[in-house]
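Narrative summary of target 7.
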Amino acid sequence: MSTPAFTKRLALSLAGLTSSKSRMRLVVKALSYILLISMAIVMLLPLLWLVNGSFQPSWQINANPVIWIPRAWNTVPAGDTGRKLLLWWATNPSGQRQQVIQIGVRRYTTVVDLSRLETLQSVPKSQLGAATPSTIDEMPVNVRNWATPQGVRKVVALARDPQQENNLVVAEMPLPAGALAEYPLDQINQGKLQSVQVSGFTLDARQMPDGRELLALGPESELAVVGTPEIATQARLIQAERLGKKEFVQVGQTQLAIYSVAGEPEGFRAVVLVQENWQPLLEQSYVARYGFIAKSDQLSAESETRLINGLKVTVRRYTPPDGSSPYDVAILIPGSTEFLVMPVERMDKVYAGPISDLVEPGSVNRGTLTYRVQEDLERDGRINPSALVGEIQDLALIVPASVVNDAFDVLPSKMVRSTHIALTTTGYKRVLNLKLAGVPFWRFFVNSGFVVLMNMLGHLFSCTLVAYGFARLRAPGKDLLFVILLGTMMVPGTIVTLPTYLIFRDLGLLGTMAPLWVRSFFGNAFLIFVLRQFFMTLPYELDEAAILDGASRLKVLLKVILPLSQPALATVGIFTFWWYWNSFLDPLIYISRQDQYTITLALNSFNQLYSRSAGYYDRILAGSVLSLLPMVAIFIFAQRYFIEGIQMQGLKR
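Modeled conformation, tokenized:
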């Protein structure tokens, strides 16, 4: 083989090998990136869920299946009541999907027409199996198996046999055609109760207006009655006691209960959308401005009830102590000797809020009276702390029956929320307006910031001095002392918790914030180690040159060492911030007053108070995210120093 040919082949082989190695390096690099990204996603998933959940309304946080993309529920205002009705997607009888609002609920039960039954039997319970839900002629029926010598038969239990206590009266399947029907439960209950003889057995049935005698078999089912969203524009609130006679009429594809309403024109009929308890409310700032304390002897003994904005308000005559003319006042908060009152003409701002929206209201003291305030109530797009005044009232949200001309029934399980993608900041607005025993949320940030600042000053002062001594000064036994110092890092913090507590108790510092930062002025073994290792990397000639120029040891530290130690000092600051911003056990042990709570204690209290209510989950998550922001910001802006300081921890001179 000629030398040029061999050289050419060798060159091609080497080129192929090099190309193969390059491809392998690319594959390894790609796999490394995939692995790193996958691990980062796994590690960040809880944080991503926390941030994502903080921008979701409460109902989405525990939704099943999980809703990952924050969405807002589409609503339609219920007239000018301030109430919003939820929009749903439902399939109408024509098979078309449309947006609807729920205008009622109908409970149905399966009934049997006793006139169509011919033969009934009394069967011992021991021969009957458990009731099994079945569908017969598209109607739900509880069917039992009857074990007989001839085999197993299917039967429907109608009633107990009054002659034999351990027997049931049953009808054998299949039932005669047309015997079963599904009826609204409220219509069945309105039927006249009477005894009916069938095949020698006496059964209690309901006689309907058309003369049929029906017996309810069950099971009961529930259907939602829905209608078009335009219905909501005519909604208004009235006192529930104004609702009169109820009757059922055919509306669209269903039957609706309509009511006469006292005080309305003759022939007026209404459909009740919601009937629930509502609470009269006034904005807290408005109460603080126009409300005042009246003594019981300044109010007339007689009172009257007036309707203001559709709400009942108790009114009494007030005689001012300065001798001016008496005038009418509304009783906001009654007491034994004092009353919180407001001039009647100022009550035009009163409005109603559903009790379901008032979760864990706070309390406010005014004189000898205490009344409740909902701090995070949203109205007209704003968070308005509102006072709960007057008595809870039973109100009905109604619309004229004439506007409900297209309604139909749908299974609740077939209704789908009508939503749109949106970041909801309501949780952040509400948590910033929340108060814990009257203490605003921002105060807990201030408390945590104060604790962090004092600990940072203490660590920078004490650890710098001690680390400088271990790193730059010559003293007998210095290395032994340093080993002992490092040995203290091996002692679990929980072991010294009780002795430390007893020391602060004897010093009279319990219940104050001092125990949270005093210890930092006596050093920290880990931070002393970090600074010592960094100081040892600096040339000792710098100290000698400064001393030759007449500088003292303190001046060498301040003018030479510290300016060169910014990465290490930043590391000390970041670690201190991290430890004490997230500290929970020490504040829990030493702090008792809620106005001294740090952010971790406040979040724990919020969680204990409000986690029972799903309506507060968004606030709890939003508060948690807010508590993370300072730590994240510190790390982002100081990460260069942090990484450099970490790299210097293991370096020796």
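The chain is about 35% helix and 35% strand.
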